[in-house]
Design goal:
- By secondary structure, the chain is α/β, with parallel strands linked by helices.
- It has 21 helices and 28 strands.
- It is 29% helix and 18% strand.
Length: 747
Amino acid sequence: MWYLRALAGLLLVATPSGGTAAGVAPDEAEARVEVLLGAMTLPEKIAQLTVVSDYPGFDFARVETGEAGNVMNFGYSDRDMRLLAAAWPKSGQKIPMLNGIDMEYGYRTLLPVPIAQAATFDIAANREAARLMSREAVLDGVDWTMGPMVDVSRDQRWGRTVEGAGEDVLLASCLAGARTQGARAGGQAVILKHFVGHGFAEGAREYGPVELGEPFLRDVALPPFRTAIAVGADMVMAAFNAVNGVPMAANRRLLQEMLRGEAGFGGAIVSDWESIKQLRFHRLAEDPVEVVALALRAGVDLDMSSDQYRLHLAEALRRGLVRGDEIDAAVRRVLRTKVRLERERAVADPNGASPAVVAADLRRLSVEIARRADVLLENAGNAVPLKGIRRLAIVGGLADDAAAHLGPTPGHAAEAEVTTFARALSERAARSGVAADVVEGCPKSCAEVSPDDPRIAEAARRAAAADAIVVVVGEDERRIGEATSRADLRPPAGQIALVRALVATGRPVVVLLQGGRAQIVEEIRDGLGALMMVWFPGTNGAVATAEILFGDVAPSGRLPFTWPRATGQSPLSYDLPPTSRPAAAQDRWTNRYLDLPPEPRYPFGHGLTTSPVDYADPVLDRPRASVADTVTVRVAVTNRGTRGVREVVQLYARDLLASRARPDRRLVAFEPVEIEPGRTREVALEVRVADLGFHVENGHWIVEPGVFRFFAGPDARAMRAVDLTVTDGLDVAPRDEPILCLDRLTR
């Protein structure tokens, strides 16, 4: 709250009209930026290009003197936030600081993790989630979010899969835009990360090099950034990795020519954590003065945490390695964001929702998102929903582990406020007169437990007294997120032993799989009643899981990535192009492994409901169309069961003949719909013909005339199809290419 009050008096330096920043028009705001810039000394300018992180023993005199122009990570400590509040008013010109924190899925009240939110396929819910969590942070003085992460990722070995929207370009673009819109509406400045290709590191090893051909870069990696920039992203974070041999913090071609030039991005570019200092590890230069010159001239405006601009930028200017106008341009871009934030707060509703009200709204939304995000992977034993039971066993150390529920980036959340799976299931069971017995079995994720640990046998003995068993296994918060790349995605041996011991009791077993990426389930599938991916539920999302298990709501989450059978199948995505020898299960001389079927365990878009749903053949509104047209595909979807369902209708397109090998199919539209029992819904899915193209090596976007086949269904295996003939073509420069999902975001 202190920061909002302080901001009311910010930037009260003289302007040409003698007024203040509150309510000023955009041209007046730009004039204000120039006044501020003109009054600054070189050290003050460099302070604006510096981001200082909180650390034990932080010297708050750095804030008082104006040396710390922007700060991050103070939101984790109430004490440090108070000291920051006391120090800032003493600073020189009182130019506002940006105060940031990593809060991918919440600040104090945590929602399910971003990959879980992607599993909803719900644009509006993702937008509202971003708005509310940003609002909660702003009310506590944190006005800068280090996100959203908009990297497309296709390798489940990469731990940061949990932070994004998965493998598909359309879904990732839609959610990048929605999350950007939401965070800005909540009052925060937004940093898109990580530009570019961070999700494609060699071997999925964090921070590793990336090789991206021009068409793949433009077709897959760039669209989420372009969409989010189009709806108002303030800043972009330059990734750690090198792309095609050039580290991003020094990559002039991608930052200046592509991001600023082609994509038209006018905001500030931020380094990743200490990545300017780390340029020396890439051996581009040894002299730190030369290093900072490389970064600034490449387009990096803000130095996060490495302190290199503060220490060396003035010397780089003195040597002529950078120019004064380049420093000024960087400062302008930073000040524009600060002035925008100040202007928007000046006209904000002073009687807006209190922190308590926002937190309550977030808790309600977390349940709603989890209802739509939990993915029922298997239900062979029809164990979901639970029925006809009098006693339930809830097993596993993760079932009642609040820290694990909060996931890898817990922000300022309190474990005491978490509703765990054990608590949610116990409370829901009690309402149905079902007794619940919580059995740890083995601590946390069983990672340090041997298969013959006596606690496993004891857990199975106790669980055998129940009518049904729910066991929570998977990843804990230490095994996911940044720097958690894994070479083996199988569960720990203790988890496998625990699940098998429970199955051996003969009771129906429901496995709840916690995590933020695919895990190899081959050793725990046999004999299960059901298997459900429940992600990291955050503060209150476990309530929804209990509702699904007891039949209050039907599961409706869909996988935002392809789920492999073995770690060796990664990277894997549904939209691979064809090969000269397509995979055939019985033919070794094809595109497959000797020791593994070619199909994934679960396809992209997979997710079961608890009522059977049928799809009719899709119908086009016209058989032929021009590249300038938008066509509509209608699909009749029928709920054949006795329970209402939320069905995520998906539409894929295949270019039947093209000048280069094109993906077997790619998602071009999706729509979640509610269908009552016994009812049929006709779903209309719009597709812009201009979106059916691809990039070529010179950067142009190409749509070729010919036949495109649309497949409609519940996942990427959809086979019901209809053909469209496109009568003409398109060849446009990169700046004019379609921006995926922008129409839906701007309506």
